[in-house]
């Protein structure tokens, strides 16, 4: 998720792409259900954890809740999530793809639209780095 935050800032998209920040500590995602042992990303108030930003759109208490509200109950409940506020759906949850979207698809809204962080001449090298970053660092 940190790579997405960096690209969001570099492109100047903070005013058009809002941000929620989960707790740094995994917690039970359905604490009321004793049989459900899943632990994952949860939203907490900044009073509880510095830097946390609750989900103002859905008032979700967990990332799992966002996925389940989008009928995704089979996969991992991961971050980052690029969420379409108008359609109320998850657009993407893969950081390399979100980075490319921020770089290419949001230029009409970016403060730095000419900044190209995914130049065509470097695609092969970028994909090579992503091939080991994703399985060994991101997951």
Tally of DSSP helical segments: 4
Q: Report the principal-axis shape.
A: globular
- Strand residue content: 5-15%
Helical coverage, percent range:
25-40%
What would you call the quaternary organization?
single chain
Write the H/E string, N to C: HEEHEEHH
Question: pLDDT under 50 segments (min length 5)?
Answer: none
Major sheet details: 2 strands, antiparallel
Average residue pLDDT: 93
What structural class do the secondary elements suggest? alpha+beta
Determine the N-to-C terminus distance. Answer: 11 Å
Q: How many β strands by DSSP?
A: 4
Nearest-angstrom radius of gyration? 16 Å
Strand order of the largest sheet: 1-2
Characteristics:
two-stranded antiparallel ribbon; 139 residues
Report what the structure shows.
This protein has 139 residues and is an alpha+beta fold. It has four helices and four strands. A hairpin with a 4-residue loop joins β3 and β4 (89-92).
């Amino acid at each position: 998720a940190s790579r997405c935050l960096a690209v969001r800032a570099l492109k100047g998209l903070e005013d058009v792409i809002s941000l929620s920040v989960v707790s740094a500590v995994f917690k039970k995602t359905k604490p009321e259900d004793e049989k459900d042992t899943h632990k994952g990303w949860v939203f907490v108030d900044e009073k509880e954890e510095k830097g946390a930003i609750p989900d103002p759109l859905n008032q979700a208490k967990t990332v799992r809740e966002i996925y389940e509200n989008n009928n995704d109950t089979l996969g991992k409940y991961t971050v980052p999530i690029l969420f379409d506020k108008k359609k109320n759906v998850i657009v993407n949850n893969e950081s390399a793809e979100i980075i490319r979207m921020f770089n290419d698809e949001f230029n009409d809204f970016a403060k730095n639209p000419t900044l190209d962080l995914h130049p065509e001449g470097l695609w092969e090298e970028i994909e090579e780095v992503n091939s080991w970053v994703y399985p060994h660092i991101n997951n």
